[in-house]
């Protein structure tokens, strides 16, 4: 069997040196490509290409308390800090930047596989009885049931 | 130096077959190395016992001359958002911190069946929402190419598959699985100096990949060479009855020509001009320019093309991401699996408290924003609008790949992957997650919009000694050509993925 040296190769692991690799490296460096030398007029634009669409003026986003409460209810997460609110507002501003793009007669692209028919399978049981396995993932169970606290009580806000 | 690290997967398994190497000793050393390199924080969980068990079984198969094929005994790592049976799968979130899936993702099952040895699960941004692998409950992942690991003076690995990229770059495994929704495989591949492939949408099954954005998510592959990438792709690709969004036509295993046999003279390369955006670094531009020139020198026709909706893409991506996140994250309520809060006042209260404790700020804000964009009064203005612009973006690609006039067509697009070398942690953390994603994903997310394949390959080192990479994109299901060209470039630039390891030694 080929002997694999037990020596470590990284500074965090060891302080020993590895001459052979350094040497190999040196040879390699000598014939490295010259990245400033070109043989053809380049097709790569050498200056930034300005975005072909204009930015709408930074419209100020205002969200009222009612909307925030609605969002918290729908999301079941709390908007708990001024910073979170600022991020929400700036994300909406960010989303507004495509508003002016002309999409007349352009259909929404829901999936890139739109030309493929979705495969349907027969309505038959194919997997085995995995009740025990699945229930094991839950924190609280009672016999063969998941357990939740009383329902139909509105979220305190 | 572990000499076998320099080998490709093909050479490694050849070593197993002729008995010069053993899967068990390779796995043992990999586990040992992973523990010595803990400072990188590439792994969130080691599957030590399982790995040794798998390696033993593999060694036995080789001894019996009935190996399972080209991945038998090859050490791999899997991003912690793929379900692995009996191995915890956390998405680096408190929400799933103690979740042990009862099943394997299809990708994991296929790797298991191919005999690959799973070393462990790798770090990511919580639920894969990020571009730095800095937003994880297990702490950030560090880049092996960092000049220093002190304080916050180290380089980020990129993300969100930063743990997978870091593990491959540090020689801890031969291949790692990542996921790619807007660049999450290619971005860390670019920063860590490894090959990162985002296959065509639907080529690899998403079954068991915990969903972020269903219409864009794909499993990704990270390796140290293009050939290794092909070996892994061949093992995991193909239709899956458990994922109705896989492409139904049978997968034909790729076989790349030898480098000397690659002829680029009939190849048409497009340079999409809009990919030169404001923040592009001089060194990346120089690299992009030089590789375009190399291709032209080899006889390929290289010309500039326009993908006019490129700049709009990042906004569309942000909208679709947040909308699908809002919907996908609704499943986490603490009842059936995952974290459950102690609040028993009411069902709604339990849900809310569970989610307040389980998600970080990034996830919460994306859910709230997504639900805002999906409100009845906003739905058309944001969500539907974004889907319409998404079609324009996809059509931009179709126009260059399928132009009616042959002289306007191109086969491959060449662009940067990231706009710079890997940033320092302190610089990266100075901007918010949302602002970072807008910069980091600029060149990568358009491919996810259109579902086309894209690969990032390392090209050279920057003056700071950090990897600089480029991206190639091609038309759907054109992986064969995409990776052939990638392999050709790889051979010209001779990037040494493991150089960082030697340098760490040399610098002391």
Automatic annotation (TrEMBL), chain B:
SUPFAM superfamilies found in the cross-reference section: Amidase signature (AS) enzymes (SSF75304)
Main location: mitochondrion
Subcellular location: Mitochondrion
Entry EC number(s): 6.3.5.7
Domain Amidase stretches: 37-483
A Pfam family this chain is assigned to: Amidase
UniProt keyword Cytoplasm, yes or no: no
Keyword presence, Cell division: no
Catalytic residue list: 79 (charge relay system), 160 (charge relay system), 184 (acyl-ester intermediate)
Gene Ontology CC annotations of this record: glutamyl-tRNA(Gln) amidotransferase complex; mitochondrion
Coiled-coil ranges from the UniProt annotation: none
PANTHER family per UniProt: GLUTAMYL-TRNA(GLN) AMIDOTRANSFERASE SUBUNIT A, MITOCHONDRIAL, TRANSAMIDASE
Subunit structure: Subunit of the heterotrimeric GatCAB amidotransferase (AdT) complex, composed of A, B and C subunits.
Cited HAMAP family: GatA
Family from the record: Belongs to the amidase family. GatA subfamily.
Name by which UniProt lists this protein: Glutamyl-tRNA(Gln) amidotransferase subunit A, mitochondrial
Native organism: Drosophila virilis (Fruit fly)
């Amino acid at each position: 069997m080929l002997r694999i040296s037990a020596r470590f190769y990284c500074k965090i692991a060891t302080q020993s040196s590895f001459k052979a690799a350094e040497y190999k490296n040196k040879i390699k460096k000598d014939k490295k490509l010259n990245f400033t030398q070109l043989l053809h007029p380049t097709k790569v634009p050498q200056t930034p290409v300005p975005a072909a669409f204009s930015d709408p003026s930074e419209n100020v986003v205002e969200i009222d308390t009612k909307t925030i409460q609605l969002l918290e209810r729908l999301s079941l997460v709390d908007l708990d800090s001024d910073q979170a609110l600022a991020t929400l507002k700036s994300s909406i501003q960010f989303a507004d930047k495509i508003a002016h793009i002309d999409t007349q007669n352009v259909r929404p692209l829901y999936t890139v596989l739109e030309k493929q028919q979705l495969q349907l399978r027969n309505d038959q049981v194919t997997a085995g009885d995995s009740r025990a396995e699945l229930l094991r993932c839950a924190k609280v169970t009672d016999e063969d049931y998941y357990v939740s606290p009383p329902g139909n009580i509105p979220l305190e806000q | 130096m572990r000499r076998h690290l320099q080998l490709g997967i093909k050479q490694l398994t050849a070593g197993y077959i002729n008995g010069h190497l053993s899967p068990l000793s390779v796995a043992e050393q990999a586990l040992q190395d992973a523990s010595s390199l803990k400072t990188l924080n590439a792994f969130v969980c080691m599957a030590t016992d399982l790995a040794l068990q798998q390696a033993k079984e593999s060694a036995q198969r080789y001894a019996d001359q009935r190996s399972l094929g080209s991945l038998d005994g090859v050490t791999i790592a899997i991003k912690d958002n793929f379900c692995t049976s009996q191995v915890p799968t956390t998405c680096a979130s408190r929400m799933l911190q103690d979740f042990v899936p009862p099943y394997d993702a299809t990708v994991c099952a296929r790797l298991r069946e191919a005999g690959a040895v799973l070393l462990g699960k790798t770090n990511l941004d919580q639920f894969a929402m990020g571009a730095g692998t800095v937003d994880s409950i297990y702490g950030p992942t560090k880049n092996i190419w960092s000049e220093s690991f002190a304080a916050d003076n180290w380089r980020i690995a990129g993300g969100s598959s930063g743990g997978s990229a870091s593990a491959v770059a540090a020689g801890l495994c031969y291949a790692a699985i990542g996921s790619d929704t807007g660049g999450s495989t290619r971005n860390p591949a670019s920063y860590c100096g490894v090959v990162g492939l985002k296959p065509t949408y639907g080529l690899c099954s998403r079954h068991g990949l915990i969903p972020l954005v269903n219409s864009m998510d794909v499993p990704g592959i990270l390796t140290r060479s293009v050939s290794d990438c092909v070996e892994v792709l061949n093992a995991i690709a193909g239709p899956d009855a458990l994922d109705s969004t896989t492409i139904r036509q049978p997968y034909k295993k790729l076989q790349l020509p030898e480098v000397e046999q690659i002829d680029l003279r009939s190849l048409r390369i497009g340079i999409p001009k809009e990919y030169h955006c404001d923040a592009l670094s001089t060194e990346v531009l120089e690299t992009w320019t030089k590789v375009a020139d190399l291709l032209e020198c080899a006889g390929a026709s290289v010309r500039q093309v326009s993908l006019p909706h490129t700049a709009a893409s990042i906004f569309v991506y942000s909208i679709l991401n947040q909308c699908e996140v809002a919907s996908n994250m609704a499943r986490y309520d603490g009842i059936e699996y995952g974290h459950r809060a102690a609040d028993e006042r009411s069902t709604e209260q339990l849900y809310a408290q569970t989610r307040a404790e389980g998600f970080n700020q990034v996830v919460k804000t994306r859910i709230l924003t997504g639900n805002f964009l999906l409100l009845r009064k906003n739905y058309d203005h944001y969500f539907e609008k974004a889907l319409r612009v998404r079609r324009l973006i996809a059509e931009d690609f179709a126009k260059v790949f399928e132009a009616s006039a042959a002289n306007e067509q191109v086969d491959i697009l060449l662009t940067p992957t990231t706009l710079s070398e890997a940033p320092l942690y302190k610089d990266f953390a100075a901007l918010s997650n949302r602002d970072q994603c807008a910069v980091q994903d600029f060149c990568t997310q358009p491919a996810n919009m259109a579902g086309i394949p894209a690969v990032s390959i390392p090209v050279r080192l920057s003056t700071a000694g950090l990897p600089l990479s480029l991206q190639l994109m091609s038309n759907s299901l054109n992986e064969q050509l995409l990776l052939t060209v990638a392999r050709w470039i790889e051979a010209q630039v001779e990037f040494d993925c493991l150089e960082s390891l030697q340098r760490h030694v040399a610098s002391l």
